[in-house]
Amino acid sequence: MRSSNTYSSGLTRRTITPGQFVPSHQHFKSGSNLRRSLPNMSHSAYLQHLAHMSNDPPKIYPVHLLFTTNYRLPVDVDRCHLERHLSDVDFEVIFQMSRGDFYRIPEWRRNELKKRVKLY
């Protein structure tokens, strides 16, 4: 059979015979723009983020440091779950419910509540 010349997104030229399987990841050069646009998974910030996903309890911060209007949030807070860094007393004062009740409601509703109190 005759082989055909195929271009993969204009990055590399491959000669592929009909019926030959070539994994898509082999079409890209290692130094292409695609690789540079992906996050660097060995970056220290990413490693710190993984460290925060451990089972350790989150560090507690005063409310005024966690408001989204504060552009200098502490570096070790989980930006998507700022409510986890509140003390139990502050949590109940702000949300007017216990943590158990808060986490029983649907996530979309929790996000709406967090937006109202500027923790999202």
The overall strand count is 2
Computed CA radius of gyration, to the nearest angstrom? 24 Å
- The ordered H/E elements are EEHHHHHH
Low-confidence stretches: none
- Beta-strand portion reads 5-15%
Count of helices? 6
Ends: how far apart? Answer: 60 Å
Sequence of strands across the biggest β-sheet: 1-2
Q: Assembly state here?
A: single chain
| Mean pLDDT over the residues | 76
Estimated helix fraction: 25-40%
What is the overall shape? Answer: elongated
Structural class: mainly alpha
Largest sheet: 2 strands, antiparallel
Secondary structure layout:
Blueprint lengths: L3 E5 L3 E5 L16 H5 L6 H9 L10 H4 L21 H8 L3 H6 L2 H10 L4
Antiparallel strand pairs: 1-2
What descriptors fit this protein?
two-stranded antiparallel ribbon, 35% helix, single chain, mainly alpha, 120 residues
